[in-house]
Amino acid sequence: MHWIQLSCSLSPQQSEAFEEALMAAGASAVTMTDAQDQPIFEPELGTTPLWQSTSVTGLFSAEADIEEAQDITCSVFEHLTGAEAPNIRVDLLENEDWTRKWIENFKPIKFGRSLWVCPSWCEAPDPEGTNLMLDPGLAFGTGTHPTTSLCLRWLDGTPLKGKTVIDYGCGSGILGIAALLLGAEKVIAVDNDPQALIATRDNARMNGIEADRLATFLPEEIPNIRSELLVANILAKPLEQLRDHFHSLLLDQGEILLSGILESQSETLLKHYSAHFEMAAPETSDGWVCLTGQRH
Question: Which residues constitute the domain of residue 43?
Answer without folding.
Answer: 3-95
